[in-house]
Design brief:
Structural class: alpha/beta
Radius of gyration: 27 Å
Protein name: Protein DENND6B isoform X2
Shape: globular
Strand order of the largest sheet: 10-11-9-12-14-13
Number of helices: 20
Largest sheet: 6 strands, mixed
Distance between the termini: 24 Å
Length: 607
């Protein structure tokens, strides 16, 4: 089996071990390589501790020969710990996203292509980034006599206001799951099970858990899976791109008599949107517009769990549209891309940054949108909503909570939604129902915006009757923005959405965003594949023997090569064709080759 993008080499004896220095190379894996099932879910598991002399240190990587570059190790170390401004006490869960240092590796693992072809675009494997899911704990250590721990490079770090000090006799430690799958809810649930046990029993517990994960079935979109770990069975359904977005959550399979009864996760990826958006409910629609347009946004929160969850909630509110910009749920001044993302020499990049260090307010004052949220409110009442403020009111360190932006929303505020949510708060409606209501309304808003684009794009597809077997398939007509905008008068979002506003202005800005480019490329690719599939079907339905009568050997050989190429792509899940069409194409290839002289048959079908 080919080594997939970013997969580390894993030897047969790979186990727990210290993370020594390695190069960025990743060895190719053979079909007999161990940890294949493990790698379908996770890249590796890391343990990060705080050393009194060295600061953060990557203590363990499992499997031990998974190869991370020194830069990747450094990023994992810094991103796995809250900074000194977070005030995190006890156990904290959060997540991060970091760039893979070598970029996308190829060739891809075959299973990645198979999974991505069936998964919703928003849940495909990350091709060039790692996703880190962190369980952070402060572990008491009676052997430490100093009043607090402090990073080694005191002076260097103090210039950025990021000295990291810890409570007396407390040893911070993080367990990190590194994956390419955006299954935040599943991996957070998994960490809740294994992290407390690991902190108590250490390495043997972690090795046992990883061996159990190596027995899990692969994540196949559309399937409900039972995942045993530490005496518990987690039951999940992997979303498929053919699912209806509003489909009901997973229900426990009645036909299976599992003991113990499984822990059923309603979703592998969906967050509690209402909890994430509680401080900004009055501005959710404006934030949706900012996400749709790919605007740069800084989210400054009191802790990494709040920053990471809010960033993930923001990037998910465009579903089923794929979020095509960069995003960092938790970002620190020590990130290897700090200078690149905070430079003032060019316009701010299209990225959503989640941070906890107020230093970023000074560093990113030139960014057009900054969202600062305050400490969470523990009561069931709705917290005080952040106010819209002008960017000029941004101050260093003591900046009050607010959405600092000069942006004016194109659409009128959905007052009916806010009224329903506030009524739910008064009636103490469960948060999961509040989240479902909010998610459904955001989904309807996104669909109302995208449906006119989908309809116009479909009109650019050549008619099926224009596809003939012996000519190249016709081209997809170009997307003309003016033609599309004219079509909105009779087929616009007003047909499915009651919200009024400047829809035309929103579409015009959308055309300049990375999300339009990403959406258009994806749809154009799918349409081109559909054209190719229809062309293959047309060839298979034609009378190939009649066609061959007056054709030269060169033309016949050319047909064989083209049919083979189409067949390989179709079998590799790149063309949407029926199994019967594939079988007929194989039969046609045999028929055509059989009509050629023996010497050419030998060339085309070597023994």
């Amino acid at each position: 089996m080919e080594g997939r993008a970013g997969a580390g080499s894993r030897r047969a004896g790979g186990g727990l071990g210290a993370a020594g220095p390695t190069s960025s190379g990743r060895a190719m894996r053979t079909p007999e390589a161990p940890w294949e099932r493990f790698s379908a879910w996770l890249e590796c598991v890391c343990v990060v501790t705080f050393d009194l002399e060295l600061g953060q240190a990557l203590e363990l990587v499992y499997p031990s020969d998974f190869q991370l570059t020194d830069k990747e190790k450094s990023s994992i170390c810094y991103l796995s710990f809250p900074d000194s401004h977070s005030g995190c006490l006890g156990d904290t869960q959060f997540s991060f996203r970091m760039r893979q240092c070598g970029g996308q590796r190829s060739p891809w693992h075959a299973d990645d292509r198979h999974y991505n072809s069936m998964a919703p675009v928003a849940l495909q494997r990350e091709p060039a980034h790692y996703l880190g899911y962190v369980y952070f704990r402060q572990v008491k250590d009676s052997s430490v006599k100093r009043g607090y721990f402090q990073k080694g490079h005191h002076r260097t770090l103090s210039r950025r206001g990021d000295i990291c000090s810890w409570e007396p006799s407390v040893l911070p430690q993080s367990l990190v799951l590194v994956s390419r799958l955006p299954f935040v809810r599943l991996f957070q649930s998994l960490l809740s099970l294994i992290a407390p046990e690991y902190f108590e029993k250490l390495a043997p517990c972690l090795e046992a858990v990883c061996n159990e994960i190596d027995q899990w079935p692969a994540p196949v979109p559309g399937q409900t899976l039972n995942l045993p770990v530490m005496g518990v069975v987690i039951q999940v359904r992997i979303p498929s791109r053919v699912d209806r977005p509003e489909s009901s959550p997973l229900k426990q399979c009645a036909q299976e008599n599992l003991l113990p009864a499984p822990v059923v996760l309603a979703s592998v990826h969906e967050l509690d949107l209402f909890r994430c958006f509680r401080p900004v409910l009055t501005h959710v629609q404006m934030l949706w517009e900012l996400m749709l347009l790919g605007e740069p946004l800084v989210v400054l929160a009191p802790s990494p769990d709040m920053s990471s969850e809010l960033v993930l909630a923001l990037t998910s509110c465009l579903q089923p549209l794929k979020f095509c910009c960069d995003f960092r749920p938790y970002f620190t001044v020590h990130d290897s891309e700090f200078k690149e993302l905070t430079t003032r020499t060019q316009a701010p990049p299209n990225v959503v940054l989640g941070v906890t260090n107020p230093f970023f307010i000074k560093t990113l004052q030139h960014w057009p949108h900054v969202l600062r949220i305050g400490e969470p409110k523990t009561s069931g009442d709705l917290p005080k909503q952040v106010k819209l403020k002008k960017p000029s009111r941004l101050k260093t360190l003591d900046t009050k909570p607010g959405l600092y932006t000069s942006y004016t929303a194109h659409l009128h505020r959905d007052k009916a939604l806010l009224k329903r949510l506030l009524k739910g708060v008064q009636k103490k409606r469960p948060w999961d129902l509040q989240s479902a209501l909010l998610r459904q309304r955001l989904l309807e808003l996104t669909q109302s915006f995208i449906i006119p684009l989908e309809h116009y794009m479909a009109s650019l597809m050549p008619l099926q009757q224009s596809i003939t077997p012996w000519k190249s398939p016709p081209q997809i007509r170009p997307f003309r923005q003016d033609d599309f905008l004219r079509s909105l008068e009779h087929a616009g979002p007003q047909l499915t959405c009651i919200l009024k506003g400047d829809w035309l202005g929103l579409y015009r800005r959308f055309f300049k965003s990375p999300h339009f480019d990403g959406w258009y490329r994806q749809r154009h690719k799918e349409m081109a594949q559909k054209l190719e599939a229809l062309h293959l079907e047309a060839i298979c339905e034609a009378n190939i023997e009649a066609w061959m009568k007056d054709k030269s050997e060169v033309e016949v050989v050319d047909l064989v090569l083209k049919l083979r190429e189409k067949l390989i792509r179709a079998q590799d899940h790149q063309l949407p064709v029926k199994e019967m069409t594939l079988q007929r194409a194989q039969l046609y290839i045999k028929t055509v080759i059989g009509s050629l002289p023996k010497d050419l048959q030998t060339v085309l079908c070597p023994p």
